[in-house]
């Protein structure tokens, strides 16, 4: 290592340029950090690369600082930190005490190792982590700890190594963690911490706008979704102390708002390849999971919040491991009585609700049961004080205090709405509950809860109020989530009404269908009312699926409408929704419109054909039972080994004949085209279909079904399930949605 005098002698002379690959005159700090050639072609001027990026050209070799725009006030320079301390800091997000306690007794916020107040050994060992102990064993461990101490009531960790750490002194509910190794046998590459290479690549791509993109996260995302401890994260970022995976996630989540920054726009740098950045970020998160910590949970929450949506399957698996890790860290327990300062308690509460929000809204939109059981956590709702405890006024962050306050209120309202959704989801996914009893009373109870939630909101946050303020951070996302939950309840009510004694009542069916139309129309009006500035607001990624759900529901209402006028109104609403989403995508690049357009645009175009709509509506008017067994297909195996669907016994007159009778030659046009007749040999035979169908209608139906990925059995000799599988994989649909999808993508459906 060169001394200070050597460094002074190696400084280039003002009258000469730097020779190529000179060891006597080293490259500047900026070029060495980027591993780029340092070309100093002009005397008394910065090198070529520093002039290009507008940064200071220095050869101090001691201090490092993130590249940033020269017009922005520079933060305090980041100091070179010893390797062992640097490794420790990248796995921890340290926080200062707000209660005046001894700082040495407070474990770091981002640390996976929960320790007792007196035990600080695990803080000094970043390779050691913690896993929560079950409540039954925890009581035994607590008693043993008391009686095996050399001094009564003194933790035995004072005298000898203790594999356990304690967070709560409550004898009835002790919180105990077992110290476990954080790492597997694989040693992380790079500088000794996970995701180092990925972060280095991402920052090279983002330079000189990396710091500004970091600040953009706290301007756009954080006020509406305050998961991170703002002041701690910003300070750790300046000191280069944030975990690399978490920094990558902050960059990636903020990329969708790239064009909103005036400083970034001034550089005239185009938005980097979003998919490439996300691929690097996903790799960084995967490495971080090899030695997970509290910051890994935070990074995963941001990963699930990111846009655009590229893989449902990856998001589902990522959510699963995030829930598992959070439960192993004990985040599902109420930390109010733990030996932590208020800031740490607030962070744990916010983190858990971030996980819960993703778990339940992903369950609603992706068609998979929630991973978190309502009876297995007791974490309270966050409050305003807890959400604002970490606010900071940074030179690069421009969000106002009013926006922070209103955004925090919006986040609390989202948590409350998520809690209501958690009660509704069992009505969809609990198979025994769906088959054993009617749940209309439960649906009415949740509708009452939703009304009470709506009444308790301030006027500027009420989704259906006249004073609703769309500029509040997170307000538009909350409004659409409210409409999505209303659609879900309307669907469940329609399904449950078919299982009651009044299921055959035409007026009852029309009432619940009208509620579905109203719920779907609210989403259409929401999209129509959006202004270009509203497209830049914060939205949860599940927004994209709410549009698809509304389109499917309103098309189903068109097919089952009691008159042609209502049917045309529903189709017009679906067309309006598609048109506005297409405009938002084409003119403003709104990524949330992409999924609905890809799934539903072709279907809407087909249904907009008046002749086609009339034909489909005539087929919905077949006399059939509306009981539950006719609404949800019953998949069985026919003798040929292919799956078919059972049909109600009252659908065809031929069903009350013996199986040995020959099949009828014709079936009326009212009959179910998917029905399988039984031949004399007991084999399932394709149903004969009406011959008076026009060629145009037949071609239209074939194109419609082909576009949806199904093979119409009336036009081919193939079984309806004999089709090519999607090379990208298949996604299981929400149990409350397939009946709607079948109506649009097959030629036989119930009157549900």
TrEMBL record:
Region (Disordered), start-end ranges: 1-23, 60-110, 615-696
Coiled-coil residue windows: none
Polar residues composition bias: residue spans: 61-70, 628-649, 675-692
One cellular component term from this protein's GO annotations in UniProt: nucleus
A GO biological-process term: nitrogen catabolite activation of transcription from RNA polymerase II promoter
Keywords (A to Z) from UniProt: Metal-binding, Nucleus
Span of domain Zn(2)-C6 fungal-type: 27-59
Biased composition (Low complexity): 10-19, 84-95
Biased composition regions of type Basic and acidic residues, renumbered to the chain: 618-627
Keyword check for Transmembrane helix: no
UniProt cross-references to InterPro entries, sorted A to Z: Carb_Metab_Trans_Reg, XnlR_reg_dom, Zn2-C6_fun-type_DNA-bd_sf, Zn2Cys6_DnaBD
CDD domains attached to this UniProt entry: fungal_TF_MHR, GAL4
GO function terms (MF aspect): DNA binding; DNA-binding transcription factor activity, RNA polymerase II-specific; zinc ion binding
Entry protein name: Zn(2)-C6 fungal-type domain-containing protein
């Amino acid at each position: 290592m060169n001394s200070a005098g050597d460094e002074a002698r190696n400084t280039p002379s003002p009258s000469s340029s730097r020779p190529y690959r000179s060891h006597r005159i080293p490259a500047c700090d900026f070029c060495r950090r980027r591993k780029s050639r340092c070309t100093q072609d002009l005397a008394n001027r910065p090198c070529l690369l520093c002039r290009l990026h507008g940064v200071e050209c220095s050869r101090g070799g001691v201090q490092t600082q993130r590249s940033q725009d020269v017009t922005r006030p520079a933060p305090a320079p980041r100091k070179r930190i010893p390797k062992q301390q640097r490794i420790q800091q990248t796995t921890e997000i340290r926080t200062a005490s707000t209660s005046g306690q001894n700082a040495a007794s407070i474990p770091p916020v981002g640390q996976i190792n929960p320790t007792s107040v007196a035990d600080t050994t695990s803080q000094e060992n970043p390779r050691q982590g913690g896993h929560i102990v079950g409540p039954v064993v925890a009581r035994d461990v607590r008693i043993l700890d008391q009686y095996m101490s050399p001094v009564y009531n003194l933790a035995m960790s004072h005298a000898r190594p203790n594999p356990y750490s304690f967070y709560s002194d409550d004898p009835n509910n002790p919180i105990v963690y077992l110290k476990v190794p954080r790492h597997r046998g694989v040693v992380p590459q790079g500088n000794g911490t996970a995701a180092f290479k990925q972060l280095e690549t991402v920052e090279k791509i983002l330079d000189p706008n990396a710091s500004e993109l970091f600040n953009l996260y706290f301007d756009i995302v954080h006020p509406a979704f305050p998961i991170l401890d703002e002041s701690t994260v910003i300070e750790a970022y300046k000191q280069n102390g944030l975990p690399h995976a978490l920094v990558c996630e902050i960059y990636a989540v903020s990329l969708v708002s790239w064009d909103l920054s005036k400083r970034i726009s001034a550089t005239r740098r185009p938005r980097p390849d979003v998919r490439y950045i996300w691929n690097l970020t996903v790799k960084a998160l995967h490495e971080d999971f090899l030695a997970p910590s509290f910051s890994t949970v935070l990074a995963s929450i941001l990963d699930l919040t990111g846009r655009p949506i590229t893989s449902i399957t990856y998001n589902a698996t990522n959510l699963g491991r995030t829930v598992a890790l959070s439960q192993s860290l004990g985040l599902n327990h109420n930390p109010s009585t733990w030996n932590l300062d208020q800031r740490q308690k607030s962070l744990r509460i916010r983190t858990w609700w971030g996980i819960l929000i993703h778990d339940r809204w992903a369950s609603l939109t992706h068609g998979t049961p929630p991973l978190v059981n309502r009876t297995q956590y007791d974490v309270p709702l966050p409050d305003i004080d807890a959400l604002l405890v970490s606010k900071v006024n940074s030179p690069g962050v421009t969000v106002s205090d009013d926006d922070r306050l209103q955004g925090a209120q919006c986040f609390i309202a989202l948590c409350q709405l998520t809690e209501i959704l958690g009660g509704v989801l069992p009505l969809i996914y609990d198979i025994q509950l769906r088959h054993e009893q009617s749940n209309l009373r439960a649906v009415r109870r949740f509708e009452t809860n939703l009304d009470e939630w709506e009444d308790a909101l301030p006027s500027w946050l009420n989704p259906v109020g006249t004073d609703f303020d769309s500029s509040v951070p997170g307000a538009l996302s909350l409004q659409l989530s409210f409409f999505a939950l209303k659609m879900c309840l309307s669907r469940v009510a329609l399904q449950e009404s078919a299982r009651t004694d009044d299921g055959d009542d035409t007026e009852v069916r029309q009432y619940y269908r009208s509620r579905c139309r109203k719920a779907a129309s609210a989403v259409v009006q929401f999209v129509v009312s959006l202004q270009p500035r509203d497209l830049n607001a914060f939205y949860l990624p599940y927004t994209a699926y709410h549009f698809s759900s509304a389109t499917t529901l309103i098309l189903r209402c068109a097919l089952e409408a009691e008159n042609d006028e209502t049917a045309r109104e529903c189709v017009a609403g679906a067309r309006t929704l598609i048109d506005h989403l297409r405009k938002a995508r084409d003119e403003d690049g709104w990524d949330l419109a992409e999924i609905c357009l890809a799934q539903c645009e072709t279907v809407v175009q087909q249904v907009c054909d008046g002749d086609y709509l009339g034909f489909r509506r005539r087929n919905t008017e077949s006399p059939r039972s509306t009981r539950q067994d006719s609404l949800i297909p019953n998949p069985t195996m026919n003798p040929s080994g292919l799956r078919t669907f059972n049909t109600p016994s009252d659908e065809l007159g031929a069903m009350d004949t013996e199986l040995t009778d020959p099949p009828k030659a014709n079936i009326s046009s009212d009959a179910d085209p998917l029905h399988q007749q039984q031949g004399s040999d007991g084999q399932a035979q394709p149903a004969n279909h009406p011959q008076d169908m026009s060629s145009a209608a037949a071609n239209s139906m074939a194109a419609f079904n082909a576009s949806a990925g199904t093979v119409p059995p009336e036009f081919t000799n193939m079984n309806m399930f004999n089709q090519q599988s999607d090379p990208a994989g298949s996604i299981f649909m929400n149990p409350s949605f397939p009946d709607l999808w079948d109506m649009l993508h097959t030629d036989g459906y119930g009157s549900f």
